[in-house]
Amino acid sequence: MISHFTPFSEKVTLLGGGELSAASVCECLTHAPNLVVCDGAAATALAMGLLPARVVGDLDSLDAATRARLDPATILEISEQDSTDFAKALRTTEAPLILGVGFMGRRIDHELACYNAMVRHAERACILVGEHDICFHAPARLRLGVRPGTRVSLFPLAEVTVTATGLEWPLDALTLAPWARVGTSNRAVAEMVEISPDGPGLLVIVPRAGLDAAIAALAGETIRHSSARPMASPS
Questions:
Q1: Which letter does DSSP use for residue 231 in this model?
Q2: Is 100:16 a contact under the CB 8 Å cutoff?
Q3: CA atoms within 13 A on the CB side of 197
Q4: Structure confidence at residue 83 as a pLDDT band (50, 70, 90)
Q5: Suppose 118 and one of 137, 175, 176, 220 were both cysteines; which one would form an S-S bond, judging by CB atoms 3.0 to 4.6 Å apart?
Q6: Bridge partners of 136?
Q7: pLDDT (tens digit, 9 = 90+) per residue, 110-148?
Q8: Residue 178's Cα: distance from chain center in Å?
Q9: DSSP character for 106?
Q10: CA dist., res. 121 & res. 107, Å (int)
Q11: How far is the C-alpha of 47 from the C-alpha of 154, rounded, in Å?
């Protein structure tokens, strides 16, 4: 589905209905000033004194009072039930980078669906920002500037072969898969970690303190996987 809305020229903060704090929203807006919200999160935005530039979703959680306070021209209703509101927003929001806050925590099924959507829409640069960790889909080549000792976890949602340097346990064309070997709880031993997966499907998880580094890495990344390949099944 193609959105009729004009692409954003600056980064976007995308607000969801999971765990979040006002401090997290403010931090994300400092980096990404355009506010897009998923469905019922519009009420959260208004309660914070924020007016979203766009509201996306099936709108089953958008109450009448909240909708009345929104400009109808900013509302994008997508009624199909085959995807989550996060996936709807991700595929229809064109921006240099999306910071998603309110998608980690609270309900693990919703959180897992968000990770699935990031892999399915690998052409969108997106960082999910939690209260403790951040998570993003690795582009074809990633150079991440972090402090030595920083936890750097790699988790595959598809079978993917990864080469990574700057880690305590480096990877040399190592195949990872969700039903086989994964790369969690690794640590940086250099100020620059380089990660190169051979295709889409690899998530990178680092502590919240690594947000600035992740933004810099993804905003400067021009080589991305253009489409997600079908996810393999262990069966």
A1: P
A2: yes
A3: 27
A4: confident
A5: 137
A6: 127, 204
A7: 899 999 999 999 999 999 999 999 999 999 999 999 999
A8: 19
A9: S
A10: 21
A11: 36
Q: Counting beta carbons within 10 angstroms of the beta carbon of residue 73, is it exposed (0 to 12), middle (13 to 18) or buried (19 or more)? A: exposed
Residue 14 per-residue DSSP state: E
The secondary structure of residue 149, as a DSSP letter, is: T
Cβ burial, residue 112 (10 Å; 0-12/13-18/19+): exposed
A 10 A CB-CB count for 177 gives: 16
The single residue listed with the structure tokens 């004194």 is 49
User: Domains in the chain, ordered, with CATH?
Assistant: 8-131 (3.40.50.10240), 133-225 (3.40.50.10240)
Q: Which residue has the tokens 């969801």?
A: 16
Distance CA 120, CA 128 (A): 15
Indicate the burial class of 229 (C-beta count within 10 angstroms; 0-12, 13-18, 19 or more).
middle
- Which tokens in the block code for residue 147? 């402090």
| Spatial contact of 152 and 193, defined as CB atoms under 8 Å apart | yes
* CA pseudo-torsion sign 18, 62, 5, 46: negative
Rg (CA), the chain: 18
